Amino acid sequence: MNKRILLFFSVSLFVLISCRTTKNTHTIQTAITKKDTTKVVTIAEVKTIDSVAIVKEILSKVVHNKINFNTFYAKVKVDYESPSDEKKFTAYIYMQKDSVIYLRLVGNFLGITKEGVVAKITRDSVIVVNKIEKVVQKRTLAYLQDVTQIPFDFYTIQDVLIGNPVFLDTNIISFKNNEEKFSILMFGTLFKNLLSLDKNNFTLLHSKLDDIDIFKNRTCNLAYSNYENISGNNFSTERKISVSEKSKLDIWLSFKQYTFNEPLTYMFNIPKNYKKQ
Known about the structure:
Blueprint: H1 3-10, H2 25-33, E1 41-42, H3 43-46, H4 52-64, E2 71-82, E3 85-96, E4 100-109, E5 112-122, E6 125-130, E7 135-140, H5 141-148, H6 154-162, E8 172-177, E9 181-187, E10 191-198, E11 204-211, E12 219-230, E13 233-244, E14 248-260, E15 275-276
């Protein structure tokens, strides 16, 4: 199984994004308006029309809409495409909130459908068992953060898999209000984050994350669609993740089954004869 696929699921699907901490508000404003003729209202202008409260209210609804759960299970069809590779497989996700995430990746190997990789993610470590190559990798999250140059933590991984927005910040640079959606550009210590929200229910439609360092040419687009409401939660069943740097990587996630707050049963064993890496 392609190692990039493992990294995407083991470190919350952000393997190619890195972060820096420099500020350039003018550049951000230019980026959002360069290819969009819709009126963009900067925060300086917002203050004159008393809309700061409106933006804050929108963000409060976004936070309110975050899915809260105790347990989560999902069966996900995954399509992966890069300039040099294409893969299709099924991912099974088992999650105990704020505690542990188990992943099973099942694909076609030499014409046989079988379990290829299993992984266990906790708040401080990741264990990946490759059943095809019979190897096991044990890493700390701190190690993976250093290798991928991504300051994610367990809770970020959890939010990505569940479909909650990530890297929200109160430093709002601008927002747009058109017929169908709100767009809010926020500037955090790690990323520029451009959110697009449905005007009817404030569900997340799109999140565009860019390095703050304007000299880096890296971006991650997260698109969310086909929402279903279960147990009061608006859950996106179709998602696309595109990561661009020197080349582009696309992943499509289609949730075929999912449940919240039901008992989970999952066995995670490491065969003694597997090679450790």
